[in-house]
Amino acid sequence: MSGSMSRRKGARYERELVHRFREAMPGAEVKRGFQYRNGEEAPDVECPVFWVESKRGKKPNVRAALKQATEAAPQGRIPLAVIRDDREEAFVALSLEDFLELVGQWWNGINQ
Predict the structure, then answer these.
(1) N- or C-end of the chain: fewer Cβ atoms within 10 A?
(2) Closest by alpha carbon to 94, among 58, 49, 56, 39?
């Protein structure tokens, strides 16, 4: 696949994720992120709480995607990699510590 086709495929996937996050987080400001020209990092999907890096392709590198998210995420944002192999269901990768923090918040929320 050519570079431009791959970029278009990635952009389509980012737009798809924006819609999915909007469905899950009604009322939240969710949009595609863009790499700023001044060198600052931006996530692939801008949303509250998470720093989302998305990868889609034949065999995306999950660890590299999570590392990219972890290194770029500012304090207070949970680094998240959303991965989708071609013709497969998407999945999410995050650190165990971040996952357990989310589980704890969810558990406390349903038990109040």
Answers:
(1) C
(2) 49
> Which is it for the CA torsion 78, 84, 11, 8, positive or negative?
positive
Written as six digits, the tokens of 101 are 């923090």
| pLDDT-derived band at 43, boundaries 50, 70, 90 | very high
Instruction: Give the position of tokens 């737009």.
Output: 15
Q: Which residue has the tokens 């996050």?
A: 21
Tokens at 92, concatenated: 């999410």
* 3-class DSSP assignment, residue 111: coil
* Predicted model pTM: 0.85
Concatenating the DSSP letter of every residue in 19-74 gives HHHHHHSTTS--EE----TTS----SEE-SSEEEEEEEESS--HHHHHHHHHHHPP
Q: What is the pLDDT of residues 61-96, one digit of tens each?
A: 999 999 999 999 999 999 999 999 999 999 999 999
